[in-house]
């Protein structure tokens, strides 16, 4: 490989949300990679720092061109410049959309288990989360269209938040699945907000389909949230984009984002995006291959060393969704045990609602040696958990 993803980057004592933990803990929870971003991005940031003046910034033409080129080349979505709005992050955009495109008391449909901040974006604005649980068959997840239609038909359901690709289950939704959502939402006058922040983190050989490209119906009744921050690991630069082909939706989002003061870039935001989307493709391809190797490492280890738990089949994100239902119905307790007994810090799936209480989420976007250490700790912790359970249930 041209890029060194095996390098250990010491992030302790750097004000890192992920690594601000005791020295004996290994954090593999929040969706934050332990790899340095692409060298081309670092170089662009260095150039900006050397200017030495960090005043107010505008969104340059090159930002629009970089996004248009990247989505056209990689994702077969032709985006017109007018459709794009700068935003400081996907979650500010989600929250803004909930506030501007729905009314207090409305229901917002979410397919669970799903990224937990969606719930906060809805409930903190006086709206109600309406869950349509995904169906798990023991290997992967699918949409329950009967349940979906029933809940979309509720007159108080005015928005659906789609996670595409899906976090935490790692599902890439097909064009046919997305188009079916589009038809249902059009029928029941429900606008779709699609969070596509993980779109560039698919398995090699697998591509995601943007909701806006699934059909004209999907394109014209949606707001799409995109960002380079997840794939290129610069979430701290606070940069994202909203894509809205519908003039009506776009104008509402523009007004909302500006009212919320989240529509202006900081000194580094646009330059990083331009560098990533114009020069970062080779780095991203190697990153995807490396993460795929880590995923296979975990899969093989679980099959051989921890057959009590199962890795859910996934083709996207660097977040693994692990089925622990044969050993617990409360992974909150399991994760507490793992952290206390071994220092391994994982995410309990219950916070994602749905059937999440049976699952744990593991972030494998880190050097292979760190994954190997985590697996050793996972085995120790689960063995400790099982032995404790046996003592508790013994007559």
- Structural class, by secondary structure, is alpha/beta
Q: What fraction strand?
A: 5-15%
Q: Which of globular, elongated, flat, extended, rod-shaped describes the shape? A: globular
Helix segment count?
14
What is the residue-averaged pLDDT?
Answer: 97
- The number of distinct structural domains comes to 2
Distance from N terminus to C terminus (CA atoms, Å) equals 56 Å
Cross-sheet strand order for the largest sheet: 2-10-9-8-7-3-4
CATH superfamily of the largest domain: Type I PLP-dependent aspartate aminotransferase-like (Major domain)
Gyration radius, to the nearest Å? 21 Å
CATH level-1 class of the largest domain? Alpha Beta
Helicity level = 40-55%
CATH architecture of the largest domain: 3-Layer(aba) Sandwich
Quote the CATH topology of the largest domain: Aspartate Aminotransferase, domain 2
Q: Give the quaternary arrangement of the chains.
A: single chain
Tally the beta strands.
15
Uncertain residue segments: none
- Mind summarizing the main beta sheet? 7 strands, mixed
What report would you give on this structure?
- By secondary structure, this protein is of the alpha/beta class.
- It has two domains: 26-38 and 281-385, Aspartate Aminotransferase, domain 1, CATH 3.90.1150; 40-279, Aspartate Aminotransferase, domain 2 (3-Layer(aba) Sandwich), CATH 3.40.640.
- The chain has 14 helices and 15 strands.
- The chain has a seven-stranded mixed beta sheet with strand order 2-10-9-8-7-3-4, sandwiched between helices. It has a four-stranded antiparallel beta sheet with strand order 11-12-15-14. It has a two-stranded parallel sheet with strand order 1-13.
- The protein is globular, with a radius of gyration of 21 Å.
- The mean pLDDT is 97.
């Amino acid at each position: 490989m041209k890029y060194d993803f095996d390098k250990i980057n010491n992030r302790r004592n750097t004000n890192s949300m992920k690594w601000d933990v005791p020295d004996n803990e290994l954090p593999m929870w929040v969706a934050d990679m332990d790899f340095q971003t692409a060298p081309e991005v670092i170089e662009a940031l260095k150039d900006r720092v050397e200017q030495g003046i960090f005043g107010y910034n505008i969104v340059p033409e090159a930002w629009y061109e970089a996004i248009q080129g990247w989505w056209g080349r990689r994702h077969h979505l032709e985006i017109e410049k007018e459709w794009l709005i700068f935003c400081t992050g996907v979650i500010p955009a989600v929250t803004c959309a909930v506030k501007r495109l729905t009314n207090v008391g409305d229901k917002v449909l979410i397919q669970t288990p799903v990224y937990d901040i969606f719930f906060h974006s809805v409930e903190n604005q006086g709206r109600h989360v309406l869950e349509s649980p995904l169906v798990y068959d023991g290997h992967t997840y699918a949409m329950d269209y009967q349940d979906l239609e029933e809940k979309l038909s509720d007159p108080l359901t005015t928005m659906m938040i789609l996670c595409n690709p899906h976090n935490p289950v790692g599902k890439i939704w097909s064009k046919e699945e997305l188009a079916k959502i589009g038809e249902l939402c059009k029928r029941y006058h429900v606008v779709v907000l699609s969070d596509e922040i993980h779109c560039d983190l698919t398995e090699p050989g697998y591509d995601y389909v943007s909701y806006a490209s699934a059909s004209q119906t999907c394109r014209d009744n949606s707001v799409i949230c995109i960002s380079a921050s997840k794939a290129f690991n610069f979430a701290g630069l606070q940069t994202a984009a909203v894509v809205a082909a519908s003039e009506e939706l776009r104008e509402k989002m523009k007004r909302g984002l500006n009212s919320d003061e989240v529509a202006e870039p900081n000194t580094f935001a646009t330059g990083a995006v331009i560098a990533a989307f114009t020069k970062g493709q080779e780095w991203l391809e190697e990153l995807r291959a490396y993460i795929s190797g880590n995923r296979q490492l975990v899969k093989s280890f679980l099959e051989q060393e921890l057959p009590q738990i199962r890795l859910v089949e996934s083709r996207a994100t660097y977040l693994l969704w692990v089925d622990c239902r044969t050993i617990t119905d409360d992974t909150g307790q399991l994760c507490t045990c793992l952290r206390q007994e071994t220092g391994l810090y994982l995410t309990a799936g219950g916070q994602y609602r749905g059937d999440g209480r049976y699952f744990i989420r593991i972030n494998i976007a880190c050097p292979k040696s760190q994954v190997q250490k985590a697996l050793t700790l996972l085995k120790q912790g689960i063995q400790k958990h099982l032995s404790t359970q046996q003592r508790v249930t013994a007559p």
